[in-house]
Design brief:
The chain is an alpha/beta fold. Helices cover 40% and strands 13% of the residues.
Length: 492
């Protein structure tokens, strides 16, 4: 299964803060709603801003303020049907510079929850001068779709294809899931892409009465940022993208590179374990993991609340690679499973499948990237990916078989250079499993105003995680527009 490329742990933490900000969706995401605020008319090629007073009706919701805004489902038909965006903000505590829009990634991470959570971890100089604003991407919050899928079932099948039975089971559960998405979301599926999410954020900026926005996007949120910089360069004051999703490669190319990123992260974990005499898998962590993979292929390992099979194992193996703090959990889970108790690994898998919205995840990725129309072609590509990424190639690439079955024609994003944008700070981590370091390097080179900031470390994304070198540069850039030297490197 594909790893969501979301700021996974941050999303999981922030869900505790302001769940009230995410409004319940109506029966149909296509219904028109009257929430007291509608998006001002937009022109992708226009410059400047409508300006004026804040048009949003903010109300208290936990540790934040929340509002809603109606926007067109189809921006080419501004007078047509609308959907409602859920919005949250934590107001600046001091002299306000403007809004800092944040997105945790995914696709499928709720930005409303994330805004309140990250406001507590960002440096105080940022929260002093910026409203921290989260806009739930369309398909979440007040416009939520519901494909009705059973994620435990969907990710309980074997994604490492060993037989025709494996293929048939994967295609069967995938087709059932896709059918549920089409039944629930219908025509909305064609309007859930990243370009429309970027337009939604600009609509919120305009409704707030600000001439320009600032943006901090993690993982998939970096794609939203790149689209904002391309569509509305003069409306962007400052932008930071951390853990970069590269725009331009096909879906299979992106998935195969992500699989390599997880292989790199797994090896870094194994090296650390092998050098630590207290690690239960030392001195051969990879060998222990491969032994466990072979065991679950033969028969499930008893566990609670369900047995550990190949699907749960591949999901559970990926989860701890997002953060070095979880490496001990991975070691213990593998050791326990080899001793006959798979409960720890199933718990890691369940953490993963419970942290983000899969429905929006597939709706966006199946629309934004080029995919084969024949699922067998995708399965063959997964087999090829496994040659270089033996532990993650098939599980990650095969997760996208849903896109080969998707009912809506894709509209692939194309390479972005954003020639008129201000400096864009591109942060990339050398040991990032989900968004490999090289993708950030190439993106910084491709963006005409890209400035590369390297973090030599492990984990998925780094801004706001307490690395002083990174956060000091981010503060200077956001507050004072001081741009670091291209190619600057930070370590712990």
């Amino acid at each position: 299964m594909l790893r969501r490329s979301t700021r996974l742990l941050a999303v999981a933490t922030t869900l505790l803060f302001v769940a009230a900000c995410a409004s319940e969706a109506d029966d149909s995401a296509l219904d028109e709603r009257d929430t007291g605020a509608s998006a001002p008319e937009q022109d992708d090629n226009a410059s400047g801003d409508q300006g004026g007073d804040d048009q949003l009706d903010w109300s208290s919701c936990g540790n934040a303020e929340c509002a809603e805004l109606d926007v067109p489902i189809d921006y080419d038909d501004p007078d047509g049907e609308t959907l409602t965006l859920s919005i949250s903000r934590v107001p600046a505590t001091g002299d306000r510079i403007g809004p800092l829009f944040v997105n945790p990634g995914g696709p499928g991470g709720t930005a409303t929850d994330f805004a309140a959570g990250i406001a507590s971890s960002l440096p105080s100089e940022i929260t002093e001068h910026f409203d921290i604003v989260g806009v739930d991407p369309r398909g979440l919050g007040a416009s939520a779709i519901d494909c009705g899928g059973d994620m435990e079932e969907l990710y309980g099948v074997d994604y490492s294809i060993d037989s025709q039975d494996d293929t048939d089971e994967l295609l069967e559960v995938s087709q059932s899931y896709v059918d549920g998405c089409e039944e629930d979301a219908g025509d909305l599926l064609a309007h859930l892409g990243t370009k429309d999410v970027a337009r939604d954020i600009d609509a919120v900026r305009a409704a707030m009465g600000d001439e320009q926005l600032n943006y901090l996007g993690f993982s998939y949120g970096t794609a939203i940022g790149q689209q904002l910089a391309d569509l509305f360069p003069d409306r962007v004051r400052a932008m930071i993208i951390d853990g970069v999703l590269e725009i331009g490669p096909t879906g299979i190319e992106t998935a195969a590179e992500q699989a390599l990123g997880f292989e790199t992260a797994l090896q870094r974990y194994a090296d650390d374990c092998n050098d630590d005499s207290s690690c239960p898998l030392a001195p051969d962590a990879i060998g222990a993991i491969e032994e466990l993979q072979a065991l679950v292929e033969e028969a499930p390992i008893p566990a609670e609340p369900r047995d550990l099979g190949p699907g749960e194992l591949s999901t559970g193996l990926a989860m701890p690679l997002y953060s070095e703090m979880l490496w001990p959990d991975l070691s213990d889970a593998v050791a326990d499973a080899l001793d006959g108790d798979g409960t720890g690994m199933v718990a890691l898998a369940d953490q993963y499948i419970g942290v983000a919205d899969f429905d929006v995840y597939f709706a966006v990725n199946c629309l934004d990237f080029e995919w084969p129309e024949d699922p067998n072609e995708l399965l063959a590509a997964a087999t090829a990916a496994a040659e270089e990424a033996p532990h993650f190639g098939e599980p990650i690439v095969n997760d996208y078989v849903r896109c080969a079955l998707w009912p809506v024609e894709e509209e692939p994003m194309t390479e972005i250079t954003a020639p008129d944008a201000p400096p864009i700070l591109v942060v990339s981590t050398t040991g990032d499993p989900a968004t490999p370091y090289e993708a950030g390097v190439r993106t910084a080179e491709r963006l005409e105003s890209g400035v590369l900031l390297t973090y030599d470390g492990d984990g998925h994304t780094v801004v706001g995680n307490g690395v002083d070198c990174i956060d000091d540069i981010v503060v200077a850039y956001l507050v004072d527009l001081e741009v670091p030297e291209d190619g600057t490197t930070c370590t712990d």
